[in-house]
Amino acid sequence: MKHEKYTVTGMTCSSCSSRVEKTVSQLPGVITVSVNLLTNSMQVDYDEARLSDTEIIAAVTHAGYGASLAGAPDRTAEKSTLSSAAVNAMTEMKFRLISSLIFLIPTMYIASHRIFNMLFGLPVPSIITAVFDGPQNAIAYAFSQFLLILPIMYFNRHYYINGFRNLFRGAPNMDSLVGLGSAAAAAFGIFALFRIGWGLGYGDMELVRSYSSNLYFESAGMIVTLITVGKYLEARAKSKTSEALEKLMDLAPKEATVIRNGAASVIPVSDLVVGDEIFVRPGESIPSDGVIIEGTTSIDESALTGESIPVDKEPGDTVTAATLNKSGAIRMTAQRIGEDTTISQIIRLADEASSSKAPIAKIADKISGIFVPAVIAIALITIGVWYLLLGATLEFSFSAGISVLVISCPCALGLATPVAIMVGTGKGAENGILIKSGEALERAHSIDTVVMDKTGTITEGKPVVTDIIPIGTTKKDLLPLAVGLEGKSEHPLAQAIVTYGEARDVSPAKVDDFSALFGRGVRGTIDGTLYYAGNLRLMKENGIPTDDVNERLNNLADEGKTPILFATNTGIQGIIAVADMEKQTSAAAIDCFRRMGIDVVMLTGDNKRTARAVQKRLRIPKVIAEVLPQDKEKHIAELQDQNHRVAMIGDGINDAPALMKADLGIAIGAGTDVAIESADAVLMKNDLLDAVTVVRLSKAVIKNVKENLFWAFIYNVIGIPLAAGLFYPAFGLKLNPMIGAAAMSLSSFCVVMNALRLRFFKVTYPNVSRETILNTTHTFTTSKEVPAMKTTLHIDGMMCDHCKKHVTEALSAMDGITDVIVNLENKSADVTANREISTDEFDKVIADAGYTLVK
Prior knowledge:
Elements: E1 2-9, H1 14-25, E2 30-36, E3 41-46, H2 53-62, E4 66-69, H3 75-120, H4 126-132, H5 138-155, H6 157-168, H7 174-202, H8 205-212, H9 217-239, H10 243-251, E5 255-260, E6 263-268, E7 277-280, E8 289-294, E9 297-300, H11 302-305, E10 311-313, E11 318-319, E12 324-325, E13 330-336, H12 342-355, H13 359-389, H14 394-407, H15 411-416, H16 418-430, E14 433-435, H17 438-443, E15 449-452, H18 454-458, E16 459-470, H19 475-486, H20 492-503, E17 512-517, E18 521-526, E19 529-534, H21 536-541, H22 550-558, E20 562-568, E21 571-582, H23 586-595, E22 599-603, H24 608-618, E23 622-624, H25 629-641, E24 646-650, H26 656-661, E25 664-668, H27 673-678, E26 681-683, H28 689-724, H29 728-731, H30 737-756, H31 770-774, E27 789-796, H32 801-812, E28 817-823, E29 828-833, H33 839-848, E30 852-854
Parallel strand pairs: 15-22, 15-24, 22-23, 24-25, 25-26
Antiparallel strand pairs: 1-3, 1-4, 2-3, 5-6, 5-7, 7-13, 8-11, 8-13, 9-10, 9-12, 14-26, 16-21, 17-18, 18-19, 19-20, 20-21, 27-29, 27-30, 28-29
Helix pairs in contact: 1-13, 3-5, 3-9, 3-10, 5-7, 5-9, 6-7, 7-8, 7-9, 7-14, 9-30, 10-12, 12-16, 13-14, 14-28, 14-30, 16-28, 19-20, 23-28, 28-30
């Protein structure tokens, strides 16, 4: 299967897009086709063995439109094209509008100067009265209007050319209605001009008066001018919908400094090749996806993830194109360039999403496909009924028919969905959420069940230290020997302990005779004493008694934590528990889903004991544990068989089958090929709250689309009977063709403006603010099920890193303290304890260390 994007020209309404879509879908080998009126684009999935690009283009051309391959995107040129297309459209419409008004104003004044005088008191120059008033001047009065509307019709010839061409091909569209209405009004005016001449020649002044008051020349010019007013306002409004995509394109760097053959040179990013060594100075954008080989820095990734805090990077860390190097100079190796970079894939997917069509749009397309022919038939029936059956004058009947034509243009129907979808996907991109298609955006609003992976989705995906329990020693002595022993191990649990120690400036003990014991732990000699660090099996193998700690070990396991025992031959010295902690926002996201009436299921390959611990902490209604990756898809299918609309949230790699099976696949973690390919949406910030935003944004977009469709439909439901004169016999209500044209233009403009309200969509959550969530610390409970208590202490007298180390050691040695983080810049310490500690206790410990507690 091949996926290709085309540019389609000549479309003016949803009837056009519906015709193009229908024509291409009937070609052999076409799998799916989506035509977007707003972006003048078409996306086709087809079997390239049965069909070619040339045949697709030929089919579109035969249908009366232009088509060409969108081509390989040059992002700079594409951005320029987006901007210039919008500017060109507005410039063209502005020129047509101003030119039309220049000739329309005198036309309207000649035709209605007497009315203007009566209503507004505008003076009528005597020359106007002498030249145009009275039946004797009827020819001059009519012919001058005819001459003035000819330039108006020329400037707006697009409506007549496209409209009649599509009408003769059997596929009338909006231009057909406008062209027919305006041309019919002008034709009737020409007919009236001949009738006036006949009346003057035969002295029938009553006939002259009758036709000179029903010329409709001003209607012919006013109809196309008012439609152009609507098109101009529409062009201005629609141009705003491409802003999000243009902002993404602005992020892509244009040049890179490469080092080839030992010399540095600046080249265009398009000339980069995989493996190039790139030098990036502070303040420059990263030109490609790659890995740092020299230097340390902090990278501002807010443009892609929305996260404002820079991320520290060092050799071996990956960097992403279009992120900003904030501090240090680095050298990096290019791994993905051009269209393979994350930013290019995001731009491509955002572009395709904004150009795609949601299923709800097909309702409008189907209606528009039969709407225009039906309107033409209604207009003809209206003329016939009034003139032939009800005995109305030809002028009245003709006026009603023209009104039906011009008020029924389905522009609003064609714009109702694509503008909202484009703005919605743009808002998602602004908030670090990549939604791949309009269909995905629509499906999200109907989700009733959310299935989540645990590791890397609900949790951070990496272990951290949660408990330090000294037994045969003190915490102050346990940490150095633990960091020393585990510092020589490459096991992830060992690295968690080392990272914990480094963050608290713990000096590791010197370890001799180190050896790693596969599946059990490590051992080594410290100051002549043999130490063991590992699991229960290692302790039993070496005859170290563990009966006194078994209850603690079981409690830790029930909490989903992995205990690491530290011991000598004489007994257990302490326990350090490690676990994969939940993300800061996971509990809030799950709670938000529950408040929205959405069921939450955790689907994990982890053991039941750990899964139950996470379930208990986060209050997850249902948990399915010990599931193999290949079996996750089956559980999704079972939920779907129970008529649930299921969203799957996973990391996009081992969860790929489940992501593809779900009604809505949401990948946590941007930049991975599997995530982008298998999921319908990608959460750039790895934050479950963004999944809540996807559903809320979808609901807002679908509500907006329904509002647009309602107003578009109700407008025609009310407008057509009014234009046809159904209310005239009872209420005397009749719609002038000029008023009909103005109302039609206004309806399209209102639909676009209503859709643009989505630009003000705010990321909020049910009954809780994001600030409250981020300021709330979610911690594990201790082994005695006592809630962890966090206190911030303000300490005076700290001046340097040595002070920071002394305060950390002093507080860590206190009984019940499980975690200490000292901030030298703020002169504060965040202390977590499993018991209540009074201010006096803190005051004494800090004073003994040589500092002052600010109470």
